[in-house]
Amino acid sequence: MKMIQQALPAKKHIALVAHDGRKHALKSWCEKHLDVLKQHSLYGTGTTGHLIEQATHLPVHKLLSGPMGGDQQLGALIAEHDIHLLIFFWDPLASQPHDPDVKALLRLAAVWNIPVACNESSADMILSSSLMNTPMMRDMPDYQGYLNERLGQQ
């Protein structure tokens, strides 16, 4: 598939997700980075979104909880280019009943080439980047070109 370039905007839409065993760590991380996060739009799955909103007093677009479809809602927002950065504090030591949904979410983030952080260190590095508050070009699949090619062959 051919690739095209698209800019991620200066004001990013940031998805915040955490497994149960990592929710407290994500809440603490958000409190630590309040000054940066308030410059962007925040999205969160169920309980995580509520927890972050209560702790930071920042508005969070809250979706369903992950196991109830929130991971899939975020995946759809990524595919529609409405999420520009995924911060997902996952718990590598605990089995997750909705693991296929989690893998699908991470797969979509990779397909659409958005930055992903899965722990505090990688999230700190992304937030400290000079690209965090400026537009950033990214390569992404030319899906419309793909459709045009496929439909033209029939």
Summary?
With 154 residues, this protein is of the alpha/beta class.
**Strand count, sense and closure of the main sheet?**
5 strands, parallel
Bin the helical content: 40-55%
Shape: globular
What's the tally of helices? 7
Low-confidence stretches: none
Structural class: alpha/beta
Biggest sheet, spatial arrangement of strands: 4-3-2-5-6
CATH class: Alpha Beta
Mean pLDDT: 93
Element-by-element helix/strand order: EEHHEHEHEHEHEH
Radius of gyration: 16 Å
Strand fraction equals 15-25%
CATH 2nd-level architecture:
3-Layer(aba) Sandwich
Say which CATH homologous superfamily is assigned: Methylglyoxal synthase-like domain
* Total strand segments: 7
End-to-end CA span: 18 Å
- Structural domains: how many: 1
Q: Briefly note the CATH topology name.
A: Rossmann fold
